[in-house]
Structures are given as C-alpha cells and as structure tokens.
Specification:
This protein has helices spanning 28-35, 37-40, 52-64, 111-126, 141-149, and strands at residues 11-12, 16-20, 68-74, 80-89, 94-101, 131-137, 153-164, 167-177. It has 181 residues and is an alpha+beta fold. The protein has a domain at 11-129: Gcn5-related N-acetyltransferase (GNAT) (Aminopeptidase).
C-alpha cells in the first residue's frame, strides 16, 4: 500500500471539528500561543521566539509535504482552540502526531484527547496507516494521559534525552498499531 496525494480533511464531532489549517488561522493569537511558556514548556518549540513569518513558513512547509495539519475548532463557539499535525512517513505507513491546545480556557477539558482520537481513527481506519506514533517528555503528565486514554502503548523510553529547566528528563515514545493490518 502507498499513501496517495491528499488534502487535509474536515473531521466533525458534536464538540469540535478538525479542519484544514489555512491562512485564516495565521493570526497574532496563534503566534501568542506559541510564545506562551505554559503552552510549549514540554516542546522543542520552547527554544524559539515565534513570529507571524515563522508560523507562515511552517504552514507552507506542512502544505508542501504529505503531512496533515489541522486547526482544532470548538463547535459551539466556533473558536480556533489548538492545532494537531500528523507527519507522514509514506514508505513505512506511519503517522507521527503532535498537538497543542493553545487557548487556556479549553485545557484540561478533554478537547485534546478528543481531537487526538478523531485524528488517530481517521488515519488508522480511513487512510489505513499501519502505525501511529508520538513522543513527549516524561514529565508531561497531560500528554501521557492522552497516550493512555487513546490506547497507545509505550514503545521506548530514551533516558535523559532532553534538558528541561537544566534537568535531564526522559522522552517517552508511544505507538498504536492498526488492528486490521
């Protein structure tokens, strides 16, 4: 099986939708999310100061590849609350997921988990990827909970992989295999 050219689809749920990230999502509020230390404290994004230009460059890089880049939209408010990306390895039928809930009032309310499961289901069932992967720092409890609640399994732990606040921390690598393939 090979992954054909694609577009990022809209995935609907009563609580939120995943829509293709487009130019309308490139705004100062989005840039502010990436510069808010609490939002990126467990991400390598924490090492950069983000600008509208750097975000536009990232958007274009995602468009030019075979990757998926979703804006997470809250259904009842219509508000853009975060982003979810899937980096595609077409040769091995693997998608590596990353997520950010940027709007503080939507954190810890299950929207990240819901978006994660919607994307995983789409990629495993509709697109028939063989494997979904993700990684996070061992101190990122909310992300570890998403791994657990979405039935991902820990594949590996790389010891002292990152420096976080001058302390060495592990990276936890998780995966979910397509049960049909």
């Amino acid at each position: 099986m090979t992954i054909e050219a694609h577009f990022t689809p809209t995935i609907h749920h009563p609580k939120l939708s995943l829509v293709a990230f487009d130019k309308s999502h490139l705004c100062q509020r989005y840039v502010d999310w990436l510069n808010l230390k609490e939002n990126v404290q467990f991400s390598e994004l924490r090492h950069k100061t983000h600008t509208l230009e750097s975000c536009t460059n990232y958007f274009h890089s995602m468009q030019s590849g075979k990757h998926y880049f979703w804006a997470i939209m809250h259904q009842s408010s219509g508000q853009h609350i975060g982003n979810l990306s899937a980096y595609i390895d077409p040769h091995n039928l693997i998608a590596d997921l990353a997520i950010l809930i940027g709007e503080p009032e939507y954190k810890g309310k299950g929207y990240g988990l819901l978006a994660w499961i919607l994307a995983m289901d789409y990629l495993l069932v509709k697109k028939q990827f063989r494997k979904i992967t993700a990684g996070t720092m061992s101190i990122n409890t909310p992300m570890l909970q998403i791994f657990k609640k979405s039935d991902m399994r820990i594949e590996a732990v790389r010891q002292s992989h990152y420096l976080w606040n001058s302390k060495a921390v592990d990276i936890v690598l998780a995966a979910k295999f397509n049960p049909i393939l």
